[in-house]
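Progress report, Aim 2. The chain analyzed during this reporting quarter is listed below.
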Amino acid sequence: MVNGPRDEERVVLAGDALAVIDAHGTLTGWSEGARRLTGYTAAEATGRPAADLVAGDPRAAWRELRASGAAVVGVRHRDGRRLEPTLRLCPVALGERRAYVVTVTPDDAGRDLGELAFRQASVSMSVFDTGQRYLRMNDVACAVMGQPEDGFLHRYFPDTVEDAEHSRGFLRHLEIVAETGRPVHYESWTRSPSGRRMHAWTTEMWPLRDPADEVLGVALAAFDSSEQYAARQRLAMLNEAAAGIGTRLDVVRTARELAELVVPRLADFASVDLLDSVLQGDEPVLGQVEAGVELRRVAHHSLTAGVPEAAIGLGAADVYPPYSPPARALATGLPVLARTGDPDLDRWFGLHTARSAKLRTTGGTDTHDLALMAVPLMARGMTLGVAVFVRLLTPEKPDVFDEDDVSLARELASRAAVCVDNARRYTRERTTALALQRSLLPQTVAGQAAVESASRYLPALSQAGVGGDWFDVIPLSGTRVALVVGDVVGHGLHASVTMGRLRTAVWTLADVDLPPDELLTHLDDLVGHLGTDESGESGEIGATCLYAVYDPVSRRCTLAAAGHPPPVVRYPDGRVEVVEVSAGPMLGVGGLPFEATELELPEGSVLALYTDGLIEARDRDIDAGTAALCAALEAPADSLEDVCDTVIGSLLPKTPGDDVALLVARTRALDAEQVAVWDLPADPAVVATARKHATDQLTRWGLDEAAFVTELVVSELVTNAIRYGGDPIQLRLIRDRTLICEVSDASSTSPILRRARIFDEGGRGLLLVAQLTDRWGTRPTGTGKTIWAEQALPPTL
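Predicted structure tokens for the chain:
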């Protein structure tokens, strides 16, 4: 307070707003609180009439103040605003002079309530000056910091906390509010100085301003949002699990995805052990847990590189005693919590020395306490295995698993179990389909002289399952051979079964010895029937096929395709060409014709037949794939096996996206000395001549021992041709691995093998031929038919 209008009396007074008025109504004293209230400094206010600051009638205000000692008076702010504070008037004596002190104070009850609200707030509240020094702290803030308010007042914030990233972030936000005067929002995940548990803090900071709008300090309220934070984290993990667990139908990969997801957010170490039957794709059988249960480690993951906590290697099996947490979880179907000090857990660790040592030691630092949670993996009412989560408890991280952790672990395990079971069922179906498909594919190629062949079949490692690709090498009459490659649309068991039916049909039609275009026509009808169910509704069965017949005598190859990629041929001179074949419609379309293409293949030509999986890829179109195939066939190779390896290695990745079938054949040719041909007139007298031609040729070949049977076969077949067929008649003998006798005529009617009655004069010829030879049959030709019979060569030759 001042004692007069002297300069020394015009001091700045702190605290509440206070002014001194002398007996003449002149302001002689002015406090800092008055400056903050009105905006006028002491120099601007003292020495001027107090009436100048009154908004309204100053005389009326003065009378009311003198009469009651307090009144609401309108006051002009320096910026022109009108203020209506409650003024209190107190007369004082300054020596012989009389003066008045005017104060502005808040209501005492309001002041008390505000103080109580600050002190008793359920959230941490603090006030800092613009230099980030503590000015006020409520009771919750003191509890969080672990010391009373006196231990922090006027101390610089960084001096009261650890030097960590979250502390530096907190300080920076305090500075931002002090510098900019704008409120900020700050979130952190940290441990308070007074506790060990980690907490999530949501902090609101705002500036404190005086009436002149100057920033005096920073106030804050910090909310402990740990529960909300943990809920968001759990939800985030569940969302990640929905997208990140079960990305492929692979049991081991799914288990690994679970282990990698939970570390480090839920556990420091995680392992997944499954029953062997699950890995094999069979229905899981748990058995009696009381006798111990054997599980196989399929995945584990750790905070520490190399997973030092793992006492069991990947792929190894271990027997879990019935009192161990994993076995108890399997027996009850519920999560089991344990920590060191529990008798059963310590007993299990003691039984398994390696597990005890490794789980108690991490990175060379002894950890004397740990928490463990075993969660069963169950799907569709079946137990598949168990997931084990471990936390290493330290003074810095003392939190054991709680109910929220158990709930989260069950959700994750349930998701993983369904994905594991899906992968198991896929494994079973794929194994079955693959076994079926391999059983339907040719295991060995029947002996024949037309071609030398090699093949490759690569099933796709995709979630779609095994496809319906197939290939075949079918021996035909007259030393010819059929080369077949096909592809059923779709994957899985249905495609494999359809492939088997088509392959059987091709063998049946090939045995009839139909030309390639006619064979595909019949096969197209069959696919159409297969695609129609019992109700008559059309299904979605489709297939492609390439059928080629090579004759080593004429050295010509006849091909027809049904929506299949064309073959590629490498000629003996090194040229590689794509055979121009009419693609034709896919099998099952129906009603469209197939066209045959004929080309000459010199001896030693290499013909490559394949399915589209060889040349098609996501990053490569068909033309580029075909060009790559041609380039691979141009590469020198010592054998057809090397050719297959070169083609597969050049065109396919390690895991092809579609099934691939590749058939490579090198053509052979029969020497002119191995074939004898005679054109015969349709005259019964020529039968004897035909027999003589045959016996003379056998003598030249040194096959006199086969003359008797061959003479009888020639006699019967030529006689039938003359009697039922007509001109032109041709007799042909082929000496290869067997002796083949063929008689062609102009009739398209096939002979019928029948049993003659006792008194019948004829009808025994074909029966004799069938009994004296190894095989016989008939095939159509462009002008009629050919009847053939095949007999083994004498063993001495």
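The longest strand covers residues 198-209. Residues 672-792 form a domain with the Heat Shock Protein 90 fold (CATH 3.30.565.10). These observations will guide the mutagenesis work planned for the next reporting period.
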